[in-house]
Design a protein that fits this description.
575 residues, alpha+beta, Purple Acid Phosphatase, chain A, domain 2, seven-stranded mixed beta sheet, six-stranded mixed beta sheet, 24% strand
Amino acid sequence: MSNAALVVGPLLRYVDTTRATVWVETDQPCEVEVLGCTARTWTVHGHHFALVIIEGLQPGSQTPYTVRLDADQVWPEPDSRFPPSVMRTFRDDETFRLAFGSCRRSAPFDDDGLKRFGADALAALAERMATAPYEEWPDAMFLGGDQVYADTPSDALAARLTVAHENLPASWDEVRKEIGNFEEYTWLYADSWTPEPIRWLFSTVPTCMLLDDHDLRDDWNTSQQWRDWITNEPWWPDRVRGAFGSYWIYQHLGNLSPAELENDSTWAMVRSDISDAERSAELDAFAWRSDSEPDSARWSFHRDFGNEHLGIRMLAVDARCSRRLDPQDRGIVDHAERAWLEEKASTPAPGQNFDHLLVATTLPFLMAQGIHHLEGWNEAVAGGAWGRRFQRVGEKIRRDVDLEHWAAFRSSFGIVVDMLAKISRSEHTPATILMLAGDVHCSYTARATLPGVDPQEPAIHQLTMSPFRNPLEKSIRVANRAMKTRAVRWLTHRMAKSAGVADVDIDWEIDNGPWFENGVMTVVISGREATLEVDHAYVDNGQQLLRRTATLPLTGPPQPPAPRRLDRLRKLRRR
């Protein structure tokens, strides 16, 4: 009898009409079996991983599955209160549900953790799904950054890190409670992904993921000045190797389809017949190149969620690793990523058109207009528009206030606007173009229009959901709301104009939100129609639950804003 056990997982990752992939970490080398398909683990830095490719599934099927290690069943766990894990291939009824959000801090589900961080929206989603029919489950889920917080881990993990780092030199004091290398990243993922509701959710809903700054460190790649500072820190090389190596294994690998895996050289390397030491060294080298030579790796990916009847493409665009940081030539994506984005946005799968195009990035494309103008002003001033003295001030403000979204990289912003206009005027116009994002620790929707384009087809929306679990401080909430006011919009617009910033060829208004509670959004597609379900998490007698805040049509004529239901509920509680 084998003694092998699961450490993390199983995670259901890629799913289409007939295929799926399941990812696991185990405590020793073994053979992993799922639905009769097997894979041998491979070892990196003493940790053992496998990605099992399952083929021959029936379209539109729901298949409960088990995980066996060396023929012994280890999943589902016998005492689990959740239903069996299920693989659900895409339906052929022209419907699809995609849940998404970002920013999830790891903290216990005890009274103190719930008081400090609130209800975990993903745990609450798992609780809802456990008693709901399959038709109400998400068909897939996009995790839009900060899946883990390397710079602010849980209290328990921070205490463990303090002990592990007690003999480090004084120059490491700033990061003594932070994740420092690959080994510690494995602790971080286990801490975040093994609570029972999260583990079951990830075993049942196919997930795709993009990294953002906290997966490595806050403000990562904000500016060249930031990189010049960070790359001279003695702890940075180990952090980079650990971050990118673990990200490739825990997050990115499952983003790829079986066909894409066949052409992935790193995937071939980890499964090759080399020693564990050689494999670890190769992955470390790949990780280091990923940061120092951004064009050596691509983290962007795409998913085709539709079928021959309905074309649904999601483009997940890396807005963090491939930035151009030269103050005179900033870009949130480099030239290679731009070319990839434009190609994937204009080339549907064979035999399909785009009925719905989802463009997912970790950072919102359209924000409150006050913030948009402020970021444009700051980029120009940091680039020298107001002279050298203000250039230094602008760079400091950029870092201190996190002015690093799409609007702070105006050349990239303009490229995307041009792309949206081109798609909107194409022969086969999508019903929707949905911009999905997180990062900003609040949720909102914004409907956009382009000059000379029918505002109803395509219907263009910014859909921003954050956080899953990491509520924003009250003072920052007030500042965030102020950015929507006419006075602030007027002031920041004048500032941007004074720095030579041109207006953009797209118009938008935040029509719902901002909401600041932990939550999750779900895009619901039915043919060429789409709606948005907005859910926020709350605690009731120690249980983590979801409450429907709004159901919003995404197609058809513009709608009035949804009522601020959560505000009314809070007022009632105060009474």
